[in-house]
Amino acid sequence: MINPTATLLISCPDQRGLVAKIANFIYANGGNIIHADQHTDFAAGLFLTRIEWQLNGFNLPRELIAPAFNAIAQPLGAKWEIRFSDTIPRIAIWVSRQDHCLFDLIWRQRAKEFIAEIPLIISNHPNLKVVAEQFGIDYQHLTITKDNKIEQEAQQLELLQNYKIDLVVLAKYMQIVSRDFIAKFPQIINIHHSFLPAFVGANPYHRAFERGVKIIGATAHYATPDLDAGPIIEQDVVRVSHRDEVEDLVRKGKDLERVVLARAVRLHLQNRVLVYGNRTVVFE
Amino acid sequence: MINPTATLLISCPDQRGLVAKIANFIYANGGNIIHADQHTDFAAGLFLTRIEWQLNGFNLPRELIAPAFNAIAQPLGAKWEIRFSDTIPRIAIWVSRQDHCLFDLIWRQRAKEFIAEIPLIISNHPNLKVVAEQFGIDYQHLTITKDNKIEQEAQQLELLQNYKIDLVVLAKYMQIVSRDFIAKFPQIINIHHSFLPAFVGANPYHRAFERGVKIIGATAHYATPDLDAGPIIEQDVVRVSHRDEVEDLVRKGKDLERVVLARAVRLHLQNRVLVYGNRTVVFE
Amino acid sequence: MINPTATLLISCPDQRGLVAKIANFIYANGGNIIHADQHTDFAAGLFLTRIEWQLNGFNLPRELIAPAFNAIAQPLGAKWEIRFSDTIPRIAIWVSRQDHCLFDLIWRQRAKEFIAEIPLIISNHPNLKVVAEQFGIDYQHLTITKDNKIEQEAQQLELLQNYKIDLVVLAKYMQIVSRDFIAKFPQIINIHHSFLPAFVGANPYHRAFERGVKIIGATAHYATPDLDAGPIIEQDVVRVSHRDEVEDLVRKGKDLERVVLARAVRLHLQNRVLVYGNRTVVFE
Amino acid sequence: MINPTATLLISCPDQRGLVAKIANFIYANGGNIIHADQHTDFAAGLFLTRIEWQLNGFNLPRELIAPAFNAIAQPLGAKWEIRFSDTIPRIAIWVSRQDHCLFDLIWRQRAKEFIAEIPLIISNHPNLKVVAEQFGIDYQHLTITKDNKIEQEAQQLELLQNYKIDLVVLAKYMQIVSRDFIAKFPQIINIHHSFLPAFVGANPYHRAFERGVKIIGATAHYATPDLDAGPIIEQDVVRVSHRDEVEDLVRKGKDLERVVLARAVRLHLQNRVLVYGNRTVVFE
């Protein structure tokens, strides 16, 4: 879609007239809504919505949209954010030694399945530098030990700032990111290789094998200070049987991890994910 | 939900201000929107939406809503319909000899998975009369032959009128309903035991077996004069293997047929299905 | 299948010649193998197999098959059991107040999806007596309190003996069966309304909702003294979204519970489930 | 698994003693069976089996296994083939302009998800030469027109011979391979972007969109002279909705095509696929 769009993600206490007020704001300024979706969480008393409209023909200059909308949003007690489709987000992919999610994300970005730049790969291992070079992406190798974690995270944070990164994707990074780091840079999507909340933590495939489950899964979620407990964006599963050894679970799981992480990254980049509490609304 | 709601299903040529105009109509009359979903089919240039609001506190008397909304809809060139959640639809279930979908629909209606009355079962066989009696539902046995089809359909139509039926569910009826009949009573949902458009027509499980497929399916669709070609509401599938004989496909398929038909009936009864051309928008 | 068959389920330490020895035993006596499947668990050093052959034309009288096979099995250190397809197992279904799994199992038994008798329903509530009467099945209402559990389980055990029950199916029984009871009657299949090991214990749908999962599941397993920790026979899942309230999870979950429990019961009754350690081999 | 194995795939008219005769042959020569699976197609009167055993400790020299087994197989009227796990098959991947399946197959081969060599890529377009070079694989660009098809196929056949190719994988080749070619080189796996038999031929995603299906699929099958009608090895599906444009079907479909084709290639290379008539037995 060549015509750029603006997208509003809004959550506010439920009350009469919300749809009308928001739609009027866009219509009054000559905007053409192309997608609008809303959800009411009755238990929480919350109205949540995503509205996307074409900027072509919209009478408000781009820099005035936020202040103008704020005049409407503030009396409603709304939390909101606005993004423009022609502002290209910048992603840093963090990896350890496994390359399947990395390759997959790069392939999808090249194939324009999502619109983003990937200027930076960070890893605690040197192994995947060759992949980075193959695709002309900077590769920063920062070993992590118990003793150097604080300095290395400071270093990582500086890299994110220098590279103007908007989103960190933990593509099988296999390290815990500290509470402090997440407080400073909260836009982090992680892929965990189980259908959470089953098998939180290390070695989920081994534990799935031992438990004798007939289905394994993968979960993409926003990282929070509590391990594998952040808001879930996407999950998927695949059947396994007694014939599958742990190494088969790992192999089948890789296909899940790839696709679940890619879907979550795409949904996030298209501003389709609205987090509230520890839940997500995914406007598909 | 004790509080009754009104639901509008609207399709109209895409243009600026549609969301605002519709939302304003509801807000101006004091309505509280609890669900709103829209879709734009860019190729067809169509805007399609479903809006549901609480009637409690809505200032327009119920009988004036339609004419008042028409004043807005007509200039937009919109097709629309309105339904009220406390108007209970009446279903006639048509069966042949298989009882699994019949039992399932009755169980779900009793369990209030959907809100409807089932006053009538029509069949070309006497076999399931015992089920009808078990649940206190009238059973009309009308044999169908090549020669008597026209008279029997006239009889069926009269039954639908006498019982004030809103929806016919072909729950494995195994007979073709004529073009004429559908013209006179178009609200018909059929379940076909294949993932359409594969295996249109008779004996889909036998043909699936012969083709050696690894997945079988079921499809719920609105009946149209062209066999198994109507707008699809819902589909689902299940894996099969070389170990499955035709009778296993039939058994596995029954589980699909049940759940796919029940989902379609529920979506229809909740006014979540909007048909345009030969396609459906399902507002889930 | 009119021709009766014998089925051997065997597990024994892996060693050369196992398939040959077992197949020779059947061939030497004129048996025609119609299904044979084997699995080797290399980590456990175990060979596990299921062999089914036609009794028609088998030269050993039925009562001599077990002792004759024992002469082969003992030197191999094998655990084994034999069942004949024309011995009809007898099931007791235990329920609480929900009827969906009960109805479903009765329907499938009537439809001959599995071959068994269901002479007895046990419940801690009187509610489903009407279903039992509808199908001519004895209904025993035994209230369970903290104080009377020991006596009531004694009573339940006596009922199982009197009715010559082979298998107990906990079809949403919602009570914990004691360690003692399971020791005395270990043939128990339970349905748990989550994809175990997620959401062990009470209220799994509420907890799934709070966790914000995108997939819910159901698990059929053999009951063991540890809550929801027994060998898993079958699992399945369904997608949910932010639009699904807890009551929607319950509704969608019921469809899963039905089909997962039914598959597990059918696999068990066809002697397709071999338990070893806390795992199952399911010979499909 | 370092220890090499032999695998027999056998189909023969059903008769008593087949399992015993085959197992005895292996046991008598000191072989240790690690996988054995059989299937009986009662309608066809066929016994089909796959047996894999360790060559380590097997007393027959490798070159004598086939003639020795033939002495057993011939009187049974059996068709059979034997393969050794340490004979590495050689694959030619044929592509057109889309790179997703090509990248995926190369990644999986590099990750050792299957054991094979990929010395050759053939294409009717020059576009993917860069991928071939990136991974050090020979790339043969052979344009196909109505007029030159016969000569080009002769050229392709010569390439397959020169490169000692065992298997051709049509990884979105988008061209019809002639009856003559298939007669000369029948080991061809194709990926078709629909759940066959729906949408045989060109533009399946466009036709799926027009038909308004709620599920799309992909099918891997052996190529036969009849278009998209060969024995099916593997299929899978994904849900779509009214929100998915044709380009979304294409995107979602690519994920299916990748994984379905990869599973089929892996199953074939592990000698798990037995074709008879137009059906496959997949010994998983």
Q: Notable features of this structure?
A:
Alpha-Beta Plaits; Rossmann fold; 2 domains; seven-stranded mixed beta sheet; globular; 284 residues; homotetramer; 8 helices; four-stranded antiparallel beta sheet; 13 strands; alpha/beta
Describe this structure in words.
Four copies of one chain form a homotetramer. With 284 residues, chain A is α/β, with parallel strands linked by helices. Chain A has two domains: 5-84, Alpha-Beta Plaits (2-Layer Sandwich), CATH 3.30.70.260; 90-282, Rossmann fold (3-Layer(aba) Sandwich). Chain A is built from eight helices and 13 strands. Chain A has helices spanning 18-28, 62-76, 100-110, 129-134, 149-162, 179-184, 204-211, 246-269; strands spanning 5-13, 32-41, 46-54, 79-84, 90-95, 117-123, 138-141, 167-170, 188-192, 215-222, 232-239, 273-276, 279-282. The first copy, chain A, has a seven-stranded mixed beta sheet. Chain A has a four-stranded antiparallel beta sheet with strand order 2-3-1-4, covered by helices on one side. The first copy, chain A, is globular and about 60 Å long. The A-C interface holds A 39, 41-43, 195-199, 210-215, 217, 231-237, 241-243, 245, 278-282, 284 and C 39, 41-43, 195-199, 210-215, 217, 231-237, 241-243, 245, 278-282, 284.
